[in-house]
Fold each of these.
Amino acid sequence: MKAVSKILIVEDDPHIVHFLRSALQAAHYSIDVADSIAQALERCADYRPALVVLDLGLPDGDGKTFLKTLRSFSDIPVLILSARNSEDEIVGCLDIGADDYCVKPVGVPELLARVRVALRHASVMQQRDNVIQVDDLVIDLFQRRVSLGQQELHLTPKEYDLLALLAQANGKVVTHRRLLSAVWGAEFVDHTHYLRIYMGNLRAKIEQNPASPRFVVTEPGVGYRLLIE
Ligand code: CA
């Protein structure tokens, strides 16, 4: 089954919300709504949408303010939907990181076409970003595959999840707590012995010399780190 793409609608006009919600739900998207900048930021963190459809005239400020803030921590595609149709406004939004701009009123076919393009663009970006290579170790986060040299490695799901978390951290240390809660669950955050066992198994598969690892290094008392140049 294809995963449902989650779309966050940021809009304060209930009629437009109703229109967008019906059109997008009919096309099998999952919908969440925020009617202010403050709520939109909160929903982006909690709901983790695949796309944001953004109005510009919001009760607590201009949608561009939200877009700027969002771009400081996220690349998710943003489709602006606004009655403002000046070229300056449109270019201004694209300049600060909007993916597309739609002038209201918009018909359903056009809306859906633009949503599809924005989502496709994002998934291509993600595929490209999601292959991480460190020397001859290749971690394909999109296909959940790991290879070393020319050889594909057979990791267990938990070994893979641990390696993927480290890979996504871009060379930063990932704490014991974060690894345990992400892979085993919040109730396991004190079970650091799990990590010693599973990291041992993981290293046996990816490291030439597990006693002196060149990929996954231990930060004593803190966590683990994938050595990315
Ligand atoms: Ca508005």
Note: The chain has a mean pLDDT of 90.
Amino acid sequence: MSKIKFQTLTGMHDVLPEDQIYFKRIQKSIEGIANYYTFQKIETPIVEMADVFTKSIGEETDIVGKEMYVFKTKGGDNACLRPEGTAPVMRSYLEHGMHNLPQPVKLWYEGPFFRYERPQAGRYRQFHQFGFEAIGEKNPSIDGQIIQMSYDVLKELGFKNIKIQVNSIGDSECRPYFRKILTSYLRSRKSSLCADCQKRLKDNPLRILDCKEEKCQQVKAGAPQTIDHLCESCHSHFKQVLEFLDELELPYELNPYLVRGLDYYTKTVFEIVDMSDFGQSQGTLIGGGRYDGLARMLGGRDTPACGAAGGIERIMGLMKEREMKVGSKQEEPQIFLAQLGQLAKRKSLKLFEEFRSAKIPVAESFTKDSLKSQMRSADKMGAKWVLIFGQKEALEEFITLRDMESGEQKEIKLDKVVEEMKEKLKQLKDGKKDKKLSKS
Ligand code: HAM
């Protein structure tokens, strides 16, 4: 056999039919929770001006510095494929004057995002994220609500071993001072840092706290911590967030080294991780925080906001690995429509449409001409009834109904067939219910 010529690009992947059930389950959970907390859906374009991200996530971050798919459009615009959803949602909030609406404006989204990362398990170059963003409210209860919603999504999907890590990274008032003392500490240990962190020292020293390299872990252990250097307002905000989390009885722990990789964050940052049997993190499933400075970075006026986003593939990967329940597969049709001859084929297309309007699932095999092979398909999928539409039936406007279990056959007038099958399905359902009741 010749080698397959075309494959997905590195880091890209197909969401195959067998994965759809997981996608749907996760989407259902997200949408249900978003609706409950009165978040409204928003869709922003996949292609944005690159500056929406360079001005907000920060040019020195990995996402913007290394991972963005940037290109010039034919019209000369400097565009990119969106690497995340928060900056575009804020762009949209500002562009559409949403500050005139009652605040906070609560929005949620879901869709594909792109980062040119080194692919590995749970890390793709095109992946799907969902996110919740509450814009226009500085009250710490919003931080609590966003964390609660994020936790709820995973809990509802059946995750048992999840932990919320939380920290406060201060704001424009207290962070410059913290940055100064952190830089001075790190500079004195520069030679003990990994090569990347030595570079980060100049432009993004906070990120060093997040580095997973063994070398840097040791340096980090003695580093100053953000929460010891918060200004009065950040301190009080963080205290209230933790009080909310206590009240909600959420399983959180303080992680003084959590800083997150995007420049727009202020005050609260959090991540939800799944812990393996050995207490090791299996990667971040959902991450987020407050971003009171983002609106201004994008040219708007100061607007407090808080949000979170989760990776659908990452969640799905763990659900598959752990064989977590996703509910039953799409209901298999109980009825199979078989046809024989041109006239019957034409008429059965119409009948099939009538079943669809009546919301009755019916399987068919219009591409097959042999009745025998259609009966084989019906048998294989476990259909309870087969409707046989042959030449004689088509001419005389009736259909033959065959009960696959008993082998019995009867004729039904064509204009009564949908109604009769509806009744049969109802009886079948009622029978199943009675059986369940008598068992319990
Ligand atoms: P993030 O931490 O960069 O935050 O991404 C959020 C989640 O997206 C991660 O926790 C992970 O599950 C998933 N994710 C990120 N990169 C990849 C990848 N390459 N492959 C698969 N999954 C990935 C943000 O994007 C912020 N916008 C979150 C936020 C919303 N903050 C406030 N509001």
Note: The pocket of histidyl-adenosine monophosphate is lined by residues 84-86, 115, 117, 122-124, 127, 129, 131, 133, 284-289, 291, 307-311, 313-314 (CB under 6 Å).
